[in-house]
Every structure is written in structure tokens, then in C-alpha cells.
């Protein structure tokens, strides 16, 4: 829910789905893992604007997804159901050749989208992500029991404030024109989440790391732990101090999140196809 950040110039279609915030992307075929980041409900790609710098040599690039209705896509209608949105994102990743040596990160709604896009790519016969990072999100089968998208505007503003969507420095936005413009996008994203129904499928085969927060009213530790069943590979959960939006500030929780991401990504085998066949034990701390 942060105000849009200025974007660097980019080819029109690339700027729509994956705006650039810093250095140009690596040349085609360059070695290294690309981290593809999915936004939370009502969020924009700008929340990941400094991740390429913060993750350093652990990644070849960071590509942050910009959904319709925000940023350079302000005039586009936002999606209100998961199926068409997932198909569109998967198609764009394939079209742009981004399904080689990549990992996914998603926070809240973004975690749900990342999982569904990984399943969609698998159905298409594309290589899966080398690692899936989920943050601040209940496991997929726990979605679909809420109805915040039906709240009147005033109550939706209160809901956004109550889960930490507005930092202490942004309280003026509660009654500002900026938030009024963003409410339709937030409402549409919440409709995507609340209308979602999980369909049983075999687990993904990539390692998974999950992040839960101590004061998160949207996804508690047990609900985040339930992601364990969604991978046949290793699963690790980190528990941090903070609310639902611990990744948007620059406090200890965000610093730990980036440190753990950097470490996990740096440990990925560099050459495609060299992933170890030995499974690590599942464990949580």
C-alpha cells in the first residue's frame, strides 16, 4: 500500500508486467538464478525495488510482478479471480523466457499466486522453480473463508490499517485521495483470495521456505506451517517478530528475511540440472 515509486524506462510490454527499478536485466543466457517476486493484495512491484541490490550476488536478477490496476497499468481493470490471473502470469513468464533457473517469492496473496503459477507451469511442461519462498500466507487449502472484499469503503480502510498495510508514517493516507484510488485494487485482490478454492494436486518437487510473523492477524504460525504438505522436497519455516507487513519496513524482521533469502539462494547449485538428489530433512525453527 505504499505510494508508487518512479520507474525506469523499459520496453512497453516488459514495463507492464515486470517494471525495472535499477540496473538492466542480465543478458539472455547469463548464469545465475532469477528471483521472481509476487506482490501482496493491493501491493505493487515497488515493494521489491531494492531487492536486487540487497540480495547481491546470490541472484542474477530480481523480477517483480506488476499486476493490472497499479503503476503503469493504472488504467487496466484488475483481476478478480485467480484462474485467469494465474494463466496470464504463467503465459507471460513463458513468453519472456523466464522459466529457466528461477525461484519464486510471494508474500500473502503473492504466495498463493506463486504456488498456483508453479502448478500452471508444471501442467505446461515447463521447468519448475528451483525454490519457492512463501511469506505471510496461509496454506492454499485454508483460503476462501473470508469476505473482506464485500466491506464498505470505510470498513475496508479500517481493515487495511488493522493488518498493518499502512505504516505509522502513512496514517494520513487513510483519509487521502491516494487510498481512495487504491481501494478498488485492494478490493479486487481480496476477491481473488476470498474466491479461491484449492484443488488437490501432487506436491511441488522444489524446496520450500516459509516465513511467519509473531503478530500477523492474517496468517498465524500454524497456518504458515501447513505449507509443509505442498512440497515433496525439504521445508523450512522461519518465525520473525512483526505484523503482516514485516517485509515493507527496514526493521530486524525484514533484514532477517533478506538475509535468509540471500543464504538460501546462494546455496542453490549454479549449473542447471545439478540439483542434488539427496533430500534435506524437513525442520522448523
UniProtKB/TrEMBL annotation:
Domain of life (superkingdom): Bacteria
Tagged with keyword Glycoprotein: no
GO molecular function, one term: hydrolase activity
Domain Thioesterase TesA-like per the UniProt entry, residue ranges: 36-261
Residues that span the membrane, as ranges: none
GO biological process terms on file: lipid biosynthetic process
InterPro entries reported in the protein's UniProt record: AB_hydrolase_fold, TEII, TesA-like, Thioesterase
Key words, A-Z: Hydrolase
SUPFAM superfamilies according to UniProt: alpha/beta-Hydrolases
Coiled-coil annotated spans: none
Pfam families registered for this protein in UniProt: Thioesterase
Family under the similarity heading: Belongs to the thioesterase family.
Protein name: Thioesterase
